[in-house]
């Protein structure tokens, strides 16, 4: 039996170890970042998500005085990138840029969710929001949703519509819209928005929902025809494009912009999350290059705290999960 006289030295030794560990952690946090940070991008180079990721990386590197290196790990609509993040230490040196898709939709289109947005990540910041646009290629005689509806009804099997991947906002929004139009449609997933855009402009698919920053340049070049904006109000970037409520009042509930955030692996020290959040806020509030680059992509910047990524995810999942169930989109 252990006596009080032998327990005391052990307790003192454990306390000393705990103090030493706490001191080492405090010193490590104070020195952060002492080496380059890797920022994982879940979409391929050239995509809208990748472009936003690189803007944050550039500004964060300037503010931190340390390189922020973007590592593209596309595939399975972000699942490959998420699995990679989960394999890394929770030390603030591996971060992930993640969209509304991966935080609120992707896990729930699988009957066995591949990850849990509320428990697998610690938030750094929500960077901003961006509306989505449904577009078709020119030369098909489609200038409105009514025209698309007629085409779908007259085409065996209906229309083929693309997205950057299964479980993306583009996938869910277009699936829901096709359902509201009462026409058949087949989802064609691509690895990233760029591949789908190429197929759309080549008329390999009939329609695709795109981030407005991606769509606008092609619309102005005459390579795409926009049909509706999934937002509550029209965009100055494409002022003649009706909102989804204007184009189809029955689909007004689909006016939901996409958003992008930066997260870390769950268990990352809170002081590092707050440091990275402060850097993000400094970029948003005082870095003209950061603001102009994102605003050129029609991203509306938003102030945020580290907890907002989970809060926003829970809010939007409450809308998307019932819709996924209603449309029967969940698969094995």
UniProtKB/TrEMBL annotation:
Signal sequence annotation: 1-26
Family (UniProt): Belongs to the UPF0065 (bug) family.
Coiled coil: none
Keyword annotations from UniProtKB, A to Z: Signal
Superkingdom in the source lineage: Bacteria
InterPro entries reported in the protein's UniProt record: BUG, Bug_dom1
Protein known as: ABC transporter substrate-binding protein
């Amino acid at each position: 039996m252990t006596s009080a006289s032998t327990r005391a030295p052990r307790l003192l030794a454990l306390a000393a170890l705990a103090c030493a560990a706490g001191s080492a952690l405090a010193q490590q946090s104070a020195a952060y970042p002492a080496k380059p940070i890797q920022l994982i991008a879940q979409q391929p180079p050239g995509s809208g998500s990748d472009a936003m990721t690189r803007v944050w990386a550039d500004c964060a590197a300037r503010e931190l005085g340390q390189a922020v290196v973007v590592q593209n790990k596309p595939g399975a609509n972000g699942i490959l990138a998420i699995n990679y993040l989960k394999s890394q230490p929770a030390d603030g040196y591996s971060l992930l840029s993640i969209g509304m898709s991966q935080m609120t939709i992707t896990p729930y289109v699988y009957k066995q969710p591949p990850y849990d947005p509320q428990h697998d990540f610690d938030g750094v910041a929500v960077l901003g929001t961006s509306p989505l646009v449904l577009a078709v290629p020119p030369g098909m005689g489609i200038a409105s949703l009514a025209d698309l509806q007629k085409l779908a009804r007259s085409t065996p099997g209906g229309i083929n519509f693309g997205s950057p991947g299964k479980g993306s906002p583009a996938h869910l929004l277009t699936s829901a819209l096709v359902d509201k139009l009462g026409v058949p449609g087949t989802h064609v997933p691509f690895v990233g928005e760029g591949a789908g855009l190429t197929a759309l402009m080549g008329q390999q698919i009939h329609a695709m929902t795109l981030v407005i920053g991606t769509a606008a340049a092609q619309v102005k070049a005459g390579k795409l025809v926009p049909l509706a904006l999934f937002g509550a109000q029209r965009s100055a970037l494409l002022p003649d494009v009706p909102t989804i409520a204007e184009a189809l009042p029955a689909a007004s509930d689909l006016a939901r912009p996409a958003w992008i955030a930066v997260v870390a692996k769950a268990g990352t020290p809170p002081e590092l999350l707050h440091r990275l959040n402060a850097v993000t806020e400094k970029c948003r509030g005082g870095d003209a290059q950061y603001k102009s680059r994102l605003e050129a992509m029609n991203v509306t910047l938003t102030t945020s705290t580290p907890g907002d990524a989970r809060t926003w995810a829970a809010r939007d999942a409450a809308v998307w999960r019932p819709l996924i169930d209603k449309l029967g989109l969940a698969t094995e």
